[in-house]
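Observation: inputs received (chain + uracil).
Thought: call the complex predictor directly.
Action: predict_structure
Action Input:
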Amino acid sequence: MRPDPDCRLCGLWESRTNIVLPSGNLDSRVALVGEAPGTTEDGQGMPFIGRSGKLLMRILAEAGVSRDDVLITNTVKCRPPGNRDPKPSEMSACRAFLECELSSCEVIIGLGRSACRDLLGYSVNISEIANRDMRISVGGREVTFIPTFHPAACTYGKAALDCLRITAERIARELRR
Ligand code: URA
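Observation:
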């Protein structure tokens, strides 16, 4: 189940250029879930290809993980205007698509506060829970959930970068299992 090319389930259709669908290995057991497409992603219709995406791919590559090893997606498939956080109503309008995308994943990485709030169902302070394994239910299935920083947070401090590097090592281990 994918959004209709003319999807209008929430108001984000009004300002989007492209619906940004998942990329990478769509059958991977590991998924990375970001917040929402940014300007570059909206323009080209692919997640995590702008500045944050390039940094994320570099961190993954250092751990031996490539874009094609994991499923990469976002809580919402359309860019919120001005790159604001997606609203809970927008995330719930897109939820069925996310659940379908994650249907073969066993380990889900939540990148940043919005993704973690959407998948956990409550607000969290990422620095308190980063890289701590949790169990969540997605589409009626229990999976492992690992919260971590969004790559954009790395511009504000080395702690976020260190955490993301640990997450990348964990992803590499999961892919070897
Ligand atoms: N930030 C996100 O959360 N997702 C993207 O696809 C790009 C930037």
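Thought: report the result.
Final Answer: Residues 1 and 100 are 6 Å apart (CA to CA). Residues 11-176 form a domain with the Uracil-DNA Glycosylase, subunit E fold (CATH 3.40.470.10).
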